[in-house]
Amino acid sequence: MSVMEWPHDLLSLDDWINLPETPEYQVEVVEGVLVVAPRPMPFHQRVAARLVFLMDELLEDDYSALLEVEMVVAATPLTVRVPDVLVAPSSVVDANPPRFDAGDVRLVVEVLSEGTRRTDQVTKFSEYAEAGIEHYWIVDLDSPLSMITYRLIEGEYENFGEFSGVAELEFAGTPLTIDLNALTTRRAQRP
Which residues contact 130 (CB under 8 A, 6 or more apart)? Predict the structure, then answer.
């Protein structure tokens, strides 16, 4: 195992860009400070991948869903998150940016893990609301698998529904039906 030289100051975006890649860890920066966590477990990865696939199939062509891409939540002090799933306009995605600005992101989905539960439900909840991300959905893998959906109303997230089994959702005028139980199975749900 190699050890990375830890920065001695708060990171800037240039510092972040110049960090070595660490595929064995999930790395984010929060208010200029590196945050390192283990890579997510298999069911977590499966759920996130299934959601990206399903949402990309169900959404209108104006939007695209992506898996684990960098998103700049705040430039100063720097906060870069790597949400499990994000949805942005296809025109922004097609430009192939190295990272997304939170102002371009319309929906973020986080899948809870043992080590990220509080971060996803408290810290990211407030960061994403402050950044103006309109929709925030949280998937809980504890049995029964469930999802809570939030929508930004006057700068605050309001609960727009809690689901288990089949979730009947709406995003950008498009109805989305997602079988939450199928997200952990080997075969993806067919739209």
Answer: none
